[in-house]
Amino acid sequence: MSTAATADASSSGDTTEGSVRLLTLQSEDGEVFEVKETIATQSVTIKGMVDDDCATSTIPVCNVTGRTLAMVIEWWNKHEIGAVSNEKELKEWESQFDTIDDKSDRDDVYDLLMAANYLNIPTLLDCCTSAVAEAIKGKSTDEMREFFDIKSDFDEKEEDALRKENQWAFEN
Amino acid sequence: MSGRGGDSGGRRGNESMAPTQQATPSPSSLVSGLSSEHEHGLTLQTQQPTVTRASQPKPEMKTTAWRQRGNESAAPTQQAPPGRGRGSHHSLSKPSPSDPVSRLSSELEYGLTLQTQQPTVARASHTKPEMKATAVQQQILAASSKALKPPVGIGGMIRANHLLIELSDRDLHHYDISITPEVISRRHKVVMGEILEKHGKTQFDGRKPAYAGRKGFYTAGALPFTSKDFPGSTMYFPSIIILLHTYITLGKQKLPTDLAVEILCRLPVKSVLRFRCLSRESCSVIDSPTFIKRHQICSTNSNKSLVVSGISGICLVDFDSIDTKAVHLHLPSESWFFRTSIVGSCDGLLALYNSKLGIALLNIATRKHLILPQFWSDFDSFSKFYDGFGYDSASDAYKLVRIINSSESLTEVTVYNLRDNTWRKIDDGFPYFLEISHGVGTFVGGSLNWIVGGIDSDFEYDNFILSFDLQKDTFSLVPKPHITDRRFDICIGDLGGSLYLSCNKEYEHAFDIWVMNEYGVEKSWGKLFSFSFERPLDTLAVSPMTRPLAYTKRGDKVLLYRDDRRLDSPCSYNPGVYATQSVVSIHPLPFFRVLQMSQWSHPQDVSPPYKGYRVVLHVGASHLEEIVMAKGEIFKDAKSGDVRKGYFHRWDTFRASKVMQNMALTNAKIDIIYNSVVVEAYGDGEKGALGGLKVKNVVTRGF
Question: What are the start and end residues of every segment in region (Disordered) (chain B) (predicted)?
């Protein structure tokens, strides 16, 4: 969708294009995006603002960087009601998560998760959480610790006791 | 020049939102000296207390701009002409009729009243849903005062979303509140208000927490406890727990607990159990009632297993890949190996009956068990008995029903409630016949269902679908589909959450499957399909009972089970899947009851039944303390019993920051850093009145 470079000819978010209203979103780092209202309202947060008539000017999307917001908008476009080949697009999108073990991917997913959480986009949230879940499903405790960067604060005894509680979960 | 940018400049007003801060020194940047997130317009309109909406730019509005040329980058209307910023340091520029004061003002949404009479602090008026912006520092005025003569004594409005307020985060503590039973959002504050009033001075160390309305609870400085519950605090809200908010990290970044829950609840039980050992945080997240509920909702459509019982014991087969090897279930003990039958299943719990050992519940996921006391009267081997196991969502209780028709033809109905481990007899008359020696009920639509015999209105012997409402503990009849021919055997069961009726025509090796799409509604019966087997040449026997077990994941096939131990998926004519033993049931394996079970199984030295639930709370940093809750104190759900779907505290940070911001501003102990700076001022040159201000470093970041 439009980025700062293409977002011209509108002073504020209420510019109408035909009957479709455009909303202006501004990311945390200042990038400005123009998005059709019908698309942006996939975010419950933004929908709430539109319904409350608070979306007449630029909507600051704090906590979300321009890079992430661009991805979010891409998602919106793909999931617009009536968009063609929805399923295929979805698969394509989801394939991005295939190599989630990669550190940068992990950060991407994290950013998307936080954005989806902040903007309250159920579809995206669902996809991201499922992707992470899929990535960590088969991991062992140690791998999980590495993935999430968690240090165990149990001592050995406690951990053994916990493991014993559900011994079968640690068998193949 | 920017001021004369006129229409075209104005139209590009939104670009001023881009981070175009340039290196040119400007008075404002000198003043600020602090890092800025980005620049925002902020307009002070002294003449027009009501701010023009962004959506309605009014060119006719006679505002003119006073430009403070010092900051060229801030001029939103610039087209970057050469020489801008030079020679325009004079405070007045030529008024431009269409100068987009209103547009600038509209870039920021929210009202902020600047009271010039009190230059040090300006109070905010607030519009939702953004944060409350409450103050403008004196610096703002100082910076701008060079460029204009501020009109003294005239109240004005600054529109901004909010100004940067930095709290020292070392002292900010975030707690989670859970109130059981759940209350509607408006009641939260009332409840917490009561708590604070009652215990504020004694339990909270004199701190004044900010309560964000639902889950979020914030204090400056730590409370003297990591978690604390206030049981019986008020008459209607028996339990309120305050718990230090925890995070699970993803990479180097912190993942809020609600997101972690969203991820974890999509995992199979096995993974979840493994991840309990990650850290105290993850353990407490997984053990929390919130998580358990979410996990149950998320996993009802996955994690299905076939439970297969036979002479070699009870086995689990993964339903998604049925050709995988069956896994033997761990029975309560060796002695359960023989003569054990499955008398019901619900939410991943199996009810087992052994004629010698009684009834036990087995959690398929955690493999933990609970042996029930004998709540039924003894009966002899000539008696017939029907069992059923189901869940009553209204009271959040699992119930086991046993109907015994003893040889003295007395029928006794006993309901065992697993929530409080009590049982009671249903004394209403039972005017039906139990047809087989041991029947197992089907749990559908909140009721247990059996096929019973009785005398119909024409005084003819007929079959009925008898249902037992687990909420009301009453019997009723479920209408059958309208079938005229009576020469068939019927059986019922659960197919994808609906009651089905399999109608096997005698001697024809054919059957119909009917499904009741809406439980209890006669008209919703519909024939799913009919099917006939080839009659085996070597037998003239009655056709075996055929029943559907489950839909496949894609929903286009049905797995069938016949008493002759052959499984077929008829809709596709795939080669039949053979199971070595007769298939009993299909079970989802949600996690919810897993935990209840794990709670039951402790402590080992106490003999069942255990009273109440055990709840693990995260107390202190060094140890886990288990608190045995008296029954009914926790998990006492609202009357509806609905498992609430949804998200937890999406807005909590937001709301809390609003609250905290407000408190911060009124707290003398908190240093508040404003680095917002006036970049540009607009006004009516002739009248000498300030028309608008552009302020930068207005940060739109919560904390």
Answer: 1-106
Q: Across the interface, do B250 and A132 touch by the CB < 8 Å criterion?
A: yes
Query: CATH homologous superfamily for A16-151?
Result: Potassium Channel Kv1.1; Chain A (3.30.710.10)
Break chain A into its structural domains and give their ranges.
16-151
pLDDT of the residue at B242: 62
Are B548 and B558 within 8 A, CB to CB?
yes
Tell me, yes or no, if B647 comes closer than 8 A to chain A by beta carbon.
yes
Taking CB atoms and an 8 Å cut-off, how many pairs form between chains A and B? 186
**B251 shares contact with chain A (CB less than 8 Å):** yes
More confident residue, B614 or B190: B190
Closest residue by Cα to residue B211 from B646, B663, B648, B668: B663
Which residues in chain B have Cβ-Cβ distances shorter than 8 Å to A45?
650
Q: Which CATH superfamily is domain B305-587 in?
A: TolB, C-terminal domain (2.120.10.30)
Residue B168, burial from CB neighbour count under 10 angstroms (0-12, 13-18, 19+): exposed
Could you report the per-residue pLDDT of A43-53, keeping only the tens digit for each? Answer: 887 887 777 77
Residues in chain A, total: 172
> pLDDT tens across B510-563, in order?
777 788 888 888 888 887 777 665 555 444 444 556 677 766 665 666 666 665
User: What are the CA-CA distances from residue B19 to residues A67, A163, B28, B101, B476 (Å)?
Assistant: 15, 52, 15, 20, 70
| Among the partner residues B13, B40, B282, nearest to A150 by beta-carbon distance | B282
Quick check: B645 contacting A, CB < 8 Å? no
- ipTM, two decimals, is 0.77
Question: What is the predicted pLDDT for the residue at B687?
Answer: 56
Q: Where are the domains of chain B?
A: 2-165+672-696, 169-290+625-657, 305-587
